[in-house]
Amino acid sequence: MVVKDPNQKLTFSGTEGQVGANYKWQGNDIVGEGEMTITAITPFEEVDMDLHFIKPFEANNKTIFKMTPEGEGYKVSWEMYGASPFPFNIVNLFMDMEKMIGPDFEKGLNTLKEKAMSEAAASMSVNTETAAADSIK
Fold first, then answer.
1. What are phi and psi of 26, to 5 degrees?
2. Greater confidence, 90 or 11?
3. Mean pLDDT, residues 75-91
4. CB of 33 closer than 8 Å to CB of 54
5. How far apart are CA 133 and CA 137, in angstroms?
6. Strand, coil or helix: what is 54?
7. Cβ(12)–Cβ(21) below 8 Å
8. Band of pLDDT at residue 137, cut at 50, 70 and 90
């Protein structure tokens, strides 16, 4: 895994997993600076966020994590959209945004999957230990 800025500064505020929770980053020229804030949550369906890029360019976008039941779990997709003011609207005609930011979205989704599976495994372990302790009584 390539780390784009091992020295970037991360700041979290608000209650984790709740509307208003905020994540800020500040890094080198590759990582830039920005913040993301949860604006709405529909449990087991969708999490909406405002994404504000500050550096290397100013932009405001909406991002959505959508969860669709699939088998015994969920398929999670990550969308981003927003206005593209001049001159970026011209540049976007010649750039493949999917190719440019798609790998970062994919990496983020894989990290989310690993964290969710790790937390689920830890929860199952605690529940198993509790059940075992209850059966010993």
1. -145, 120
2. 11
3. 72
4. yes
5. 7
6. strand
7. yes
8. low
